[in-house]
Every structure is written in C-alpha cells, then in structure tokens.
Design a protein that fits this description.
386 residues, alpha/beta, Alpha-Beta Plaits
C-alpha cells in the first residue's frame, strides 16, 4: 500500500443519494468502522449512476487514498453500473461466478420471487477479485487491488453492508493491516463556552504542534476532538490542553451525562425541585427513561411557601421510599433547602446545585448549563449509593 497506508475514502454511487432522495448514512457508518481499524477517512464522495461520473471519481480518489470503499450500483437493473465501471477502470475483465448465481436462485426461490434474466449480471466480477458473500441480499460484494490501492465494493442497502462488513471486510482489513499505526481519538464534551471561544483556547495550546484536532457542536455541548499517535510528546500537549479547558469539561470520550444518568437511575425514583430553569430541567429529566419522576417547579406559576414545600417533599419521600432527591436552584432561591439539610437521611440523598463562581468564566451561565450540572451532580450521588 501507499506510504500513507491508513488514508481512506468512501465513494457512494447512486442518483437517489446525490439528488437528496435518501440520506447517506452508509458513509457515516463505514467511516466509524474504518476509524476503529486505524484508518483516517479523509473524503466522502457521492456521484450519479453515470459511467463518466464514476470513472472521474475513481481517478480523483486514486491519487490520495490507499483504501477506497465503494457502495451502491451492484443491483440487476440497467442503471446499476458499478461492477462494469470498476472492471474497466481497474483493467480487469469481468468473469462469471457460478456460486453467486446459486445463492441468488436459492434466495429468490425461498422468497417466492420470480428469477429474472437480469439477475445474472450480479454474478460477474473482475478477475482476481475476492468475492464477499451477501447473506442478506442478492448482490455479492468484492474487493480488488490496483496500483497498490485497495478497492472494496459493496451493495447499497445498509443491512447488506453491515452483514458483509462484519463477516468479510473487517477480518480482511485486520489481517492486511496488523502493523497499521492506529491513531487514538480523544473527546472532551464542554459546556459554557461558545465554539469560537473554545477554539481560541485550544488553538493557543495546540497550534504549531503536530497534533490533528477539531471541534463539533452537539447541543448543548461543544466537543473537542484530538487524534494522537503513541508519540509521548503529543501526550504532554494534550495534558496541558485538558488542564486549560478543565473548568468546562462535562464528559470524556463518548460517555455523555445523559447516558450515565439513565443507567444509574434505572428503577429508581426521582424527586426534583427546580426553581431556576423555568421548566427546562423538568423537561429534560422527564424525557429520560426512568421508572418514577416527580418534578416540582415554579414553571407552572405555583408558589410554594417553605412550609408547603417541606410538607410535600416529606409526603413524597414516604410515598416513594428510597427515592433520590434532587434540587436545582440558584443562590437566590437557596432558602427552599432549609429543613431538609437538618435531616441526615434527606441530606445524604439530596443534590444541591448553586453557582460555582470559582472561575472567571464559569460554565453555569444559562439554563442548559444548569441542567447539565444538575445531571452531573445526580450521577455523583447515584454513584455513591451503588
């Protein structure tokens, strides 16, 4: 393979994709799988069902990629051109494969579908190619090599791609690339800074360093993504960067707070008093798959006196024995906490949220930030009771 032997591209062939009739989820899925195997996918390209368009795409991708994964265009109809065009581009004539025809006949017969003569075109593959058996459809995939470039050609339906990938493609790539240097992807989910401000802070630490990094907004978070090798010098830069953005970090990797909270709170009861997010926290909490949720909020204009609030909480605690209490509040409404803190039983099961105030750019500046901080506090409490 090329010197840059981990650079990959995904080529999608299909007029329906280019014209926006369907969403190209295949490219996303394949890129994620390639990343797990140590490849860097640098290009996604979609083209029409056109011989000229497919040839141009292959010529373009050939110069900068060691691996090209192609999807679509392996069907039996006249506009399915992928196998013919790949054969022509690679200079490898098509050859009949009897085993593929036997599988097609058996599959269509079992489904009581009439076998058409057009299905025969799905049984031709470039010479010297490896055929991937498709147990979810009639279009087998294949792979071949041209000028040290690996081409993997797959059908378009996602279920068929997944089946062929898991059974054939992934084991093949693992075997071919046992010595491939895999970059590790590190992710920090941050909250409380705009994407532009966070970028400025990270750039200040990592600029001019040999580190590949980027940003992604996934509301309400901004994710900082860094790809690193086994270079120890890079680790030093990353540690420095993480320390710099630590006041705004809410999760690392793909373990988001909502996922952690959902797991920890399973089969538990939650009582939440929210006098500061105008119902945002209540909506977020109620959307999670919990067995029992009771939310007391001022969003419905209900005004609770200290006595009324304490009375309702005590009643609910008896009704939902063993509940985890959570109170989201700011300093102005902190007094509603009053008597519960005097009771050690309630104190151990109560989450008190106030503004941090210890950093000049504290992340608790908006409703969504308060919501995420409350979830974070909940997770700490739930962890302590497991």
């Amino acid at each position: 393979m090329k010197e840059m032997n981990n650079i990959a591209a995904v080529l999608t062939i299909g007029t329906e994709v280019v014209e926006g009739q369907i969403l190209n989820r295949n490219a996303q899925w394949i890129s994620q799988k390639l990343q797990d195997l140590g490849y860097n996918t640098t290009t996604h390209l979609s083209v029409l069902d056109s011989e000229k368009a497919i040839l141009s795409a292959l010529d373009f991708l050939h110069s900068a990629h060691a691996l090209i994964v192609i999807t679509g265009g392996l069907g039996p109809t006249s506009d399915d051109l992928t196998r013919e065009v790949v054969s022509r581009w690679a200079g490898k004539p098509l050859k009949w494969n009897e085993a593929s025809w036997v599988r097609i006949v058996e599959r269509l017969t079992s489904l009581q579908v009439m076998i058409a003569e057009a299905n025969r075109k799905q049984c031709f593959f470039p010479v010297e190619s490896k055929i991937f058996e498709n147990n979810k459809g009639t279009a087998d995939g294949f792979c071949l090599t041209k000028d040290s470039i690996e081409l993997i050609v797959l059908p378009g339906p996602p279920k068929e791609i997944e089946a062929i990938w898991n059974k054939e493609v992934e084991p093949l790539l693992v075997q071919k690339n046992l010595t491939l240097n895999k970059d590790e992807l590190l992710i920090w989910g941050c909250l409380g800074l705009s994407e532009s401000r966070l970028s400025e802070i990270v750039d200040e630490v990592l600029k001019d360093k040999e580190v590949r990094y980027g940003f992604r907004v996934s509301m309400p978070y901004t994710e900082v993504k860094v790809w690193i090798s086994k270079n120890k010098t890079q680790r030093t830069f990353i540690d420095q960067m993480e320390k710099t953005i630590s006041p705004w970090i809410y999760y690392k990797g793909l373990n988001r707070l909502t996922d952690e909270f959902n797991l920890l709170a399973q089969n538990k009861s939650i009582i939440c008093v929210d006098f500061c997010t105008k119902g945002v926290f209540a909506k977020r909490l109620s959307s999670l798959s919990l067995a029992k949720v009771k939310v007391i909020t001022d969003f419905n204009q209900t005004v609770y006196s200290h006595k009324e609030l304490k009375s309702e909480l005590v009643f609910l605690s008896k009704l939902l024995e063993g509940s985890i209490f959570g109170i989201a509040m700011n300093e102005m409404t902190g007094e509603v906490y009053f008597g519960l803190l005097e009771n050690q039983i309630y104190k151990e099961r109560t989450c008190k949220l106030i503004y941090k105030g210890s950093h000049p750019e504290t992340p608790i500046r908006n409703q969504m930030a308060i919501v995420e901080q409350a979830l974070k506090n909940y997770c700490e409490i739930l962890n302590s009771h497991t």
